[in-house]
């Protein structure tokens, strides 16, 4: 077991009050390295005498186009770790309105909607996603560069209009730490490789951040810390 990842997840749970006693958590599992790593560590806690009692149930959304993820491998992995799984078929392509082009935003919003539906039907009050620290940083830079706003994906997001809360247990874990763990565990690194990939802006931001942290890894930590540490006195006030 990777103690560092486990510690970082414990820190996130504590710092953001991410998991509470009695929670029933739907684990959104794509079959990729991030969500399987998340499922592995949460299962260790849910199935042991961890100080917070909670239940987990993995959910995989199977779309109507091939995304090249090796399904049999990840289903077996979850079984071996004692994690129950529900697979839901969602015709993402078929649901597209005539004349509309397929894109990542449409796909992820359809998946998100089905995850919420599953959670509410099965009594889950939380949905866990496999986003990690680098995803959160990239989103922060993308939102500044392309939307002109300072915002990002939150470690814990309570919806106003729904009973569910989104959580991101890997919020303090770096992607390279997940890659190392996934290699040790034999978890496939394949993620979505559909032909509709429109994630080039995210990739651009990733290389900008990697460039900044290339010579000094603590820069990545500081960039993340800065998002948690605004100094209002030295921010430009619009009023
Ligand atoms: N088909 C799916 N079914 C269930 N959950 C999904 C699915 N695809 C993505 N997710 C959830 O959304 C998160 C972000 O999805 P994204 O497509 O960005 O994957 P990723 O960052 O490559 O992560 P992973 O390595 O888990 O695939 C995933 O970590 C997972 O929790």
From TrEMBL:
Keywords: ATP-binding, Nucleotide-binding, Transferase
Keyword ATP-binding recorded: yes
Sample GO molecular function, one term: ATP binding
UniProt-listed InterPro entries: Rossmann-like_a/b/a_fold (IPR014729), TilS/TtcA_N (IPR011063), tRNA_thiolation_TtcA_Ctu1 (IPR035107)
Binding site for ATP: 28-30, 34, 61, 130, 135
Keyword Thylakoid among record annotations: no
Pfam families: ATP_bind_3 (PF01171)
Domain tRNA(Ile)-lysidine/2-thiocytidine synthase N-terminal: from-to ranges: 24-206
GO biological process: tRNA processing
Descriptive protein name: tRNA 2-thiocytidine biosynthesis protein TtcA
Origin species: Spirochaeta isovalerica
């Amino acid at each position: 077991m990777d103690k560092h990842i486990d510690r970082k997840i414990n820190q996130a749970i504590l710092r953001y009050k991410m998991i509470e006693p009695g929670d029933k958590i739907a684990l959104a599992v794509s079959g990729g390295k991030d969500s399987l790593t998340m499922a592995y560590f949460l299962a260790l806690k849910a199935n042991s005498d961890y100080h917070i009692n909670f239940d987990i149930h993995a959910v995989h959304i199977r779309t109507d186009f091939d995304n090249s993820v090796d399904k049999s491998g990840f289903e077996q992995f979850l079984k071996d770790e004692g994690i129950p799984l529900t697979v839901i078929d969602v015709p993402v392509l078929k649901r597209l309105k005539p004349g509309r082009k397929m894109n990542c935003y449409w796909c992820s919003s359809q998946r998100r909607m089905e995850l919420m539906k599953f959670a509410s039907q099965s009594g889950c009050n939380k949905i866990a996603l496999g986003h990690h620290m680098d995803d959160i940083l990239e989103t922060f830079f993308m939102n500044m560069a392309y939307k002109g706003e300072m915002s990002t994906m939150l470690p814990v997001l309570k919806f106003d209009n729904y009973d569910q809360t989104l959580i991101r247990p890997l919020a303090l874990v770096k992607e390279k730490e997940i890659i190392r763990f996934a290699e040790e565990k034999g978890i496939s690194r394949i993620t979505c490789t559909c032909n509709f990939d429109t994630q080039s802006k995210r990739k651009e931001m990733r290389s900008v951040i990697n460039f900044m942290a290339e010579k000094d890894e603590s820069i990545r930590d500081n960039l993340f810390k800065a998002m948690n540490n605004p100094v209002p006195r030295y921010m430009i006030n619009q009023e």
